[in-house]
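lol ok so funny story. i was supposed to be doing the assay writeup but got distracted and ended up predicting the structure for this chain instead. priorities right. anyway since i did it might as well share w the group, maybe its usefull for someone
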Amino acid sequence: MSHSDPAARPAGGRLRTLVLGGARSGKSAYAESLAGTGSVRYIATAIPDPADTDFAARIAAHRARRPAGWMVLDGADPATALRDTYPGPTLVDDIGTWLTARLDARAAWDAPRGTITPDMDGLVEAVAQYAGRLVLVTPEAGLGVIPATRSGRLFRDEIGALNQRLAQVCDDAYFVVAGLPMRLK
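and the output, tada:
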């Protein structure tokens, strides 16, 4: 087996893969291909807002392309869910929606930076200690202009710091652009 081909590793083996990319880059589809089609646990971090029909349509498109046999945990906290190792691959999609939910839960959008550090610490620790096959999807938000709003800058700064920490504890990392994965490590 090649270290550069995570799909070739045994489904039950310990391998943590981070998949980064911009909006609509194909990062989720690539991560799903890494997870395979067998018994996959899918941790969907999005918490839908019934009034947001655009977001609901995006969630529906993700659901439609998932194999029917996958075990899906909707609106789950990966730091909690990863305490239990699943016998097959686990896919977390995505860290950005999880981060947004944590910022909302702690009413931290206007709080000092670092308010959600305990949540980020818990997630990084859960990923580092996870004993099974794990694929994480996360947005790369640092390639654009400096956001005009404080909340935009806060999200960009926090996701950038969290992505760096997750990349350190993951075995492999890929950056997806225009549906093309580039291996980072």
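Confidence is low (pLDDT under 50) at residues 1-12. The radius of gyration is 16 Å.
back to the writeup now i swear
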